[in-house]
Specification:
This protein has 162 residues and is mainly alpha-helical. The protein has 6 helices and no strands. It is 58% helix and 0% strand. Helix 2 runs antiparallel to helix 4. 34% of the residues are buried.
Length: 162
């Protein structure tokens, strides 16, 4: 198994369970911050059409999502779930920025590893709140628009960042 920043980022992207992805994100972020991983990789970045994610939430087109009514407990939970889903995707997006774009300055990788760790923390807080409300991540449908855009911009770091 490669001990590179890029391979470690890929392991984070492909982690399926949210708790696993968050724990691995924390570990890899720390390894990058403390320079325990190399920036040498013999393979180039591959297209990642589907990142690791649990079977739920069910991903549907945005127009098929139910409207959230914030006046009810379930509506508020659906709203928090939507934000949690954004944060979960943001973990993958941050790691994809590390994995995909090689040869960037070291600070680029330090910054994106920090972003991934912060997004994992945000997801964990929102997931905890969902549980306090009697729900779980995956209880509501979601869409895949953020990752779809990542796939459309995987050819150029400037296009991705814009």
């Amino acid at each position: 198994m490669s001990n590179s920043v890029y391979a470690a980022a890929a392991r984070c992207i492909f982690a399926v369970e949210p708790d696993e992805k968050c724990a691995l994100t924390k570990k890899v972020s720390e390894q990058i911050q403390t320079q325990q991983l190399s920036y040498t990789e013999s393979t180039s970045a591959a297209t990642i059409e589907v990142p690791g994610r649990p079977l739920k939430p069910v991903l549907v087109p945005p127009r098929m999502l139910a409207q959230r009514k914030l006046g009810s407990d379930s509506g508020r939970a659906a709203f928090i779930h939507a934000i949690a889903h954004i944060e979960f995707n943001a973990i993958n997006l941050a790691w994809d920025a590390v994995y995909r774009f090689r040869g960037m300055p070291g600070q680029y990788y330090l910054d994106w590893a920090k972003v991934a760790r912060e997004e994992a923390y945000h997801f964990s807080l929102l997931n905890q709140r969902l549980q306090e409300m009697g729900y779980a991540y995956g209880d509501f449908d979601a869409h895949d628009g953020l990752w779809e855009m990542a796939c459309k911009t995987d050819h150029d770091v400037l296009v991705r960042m814009a």
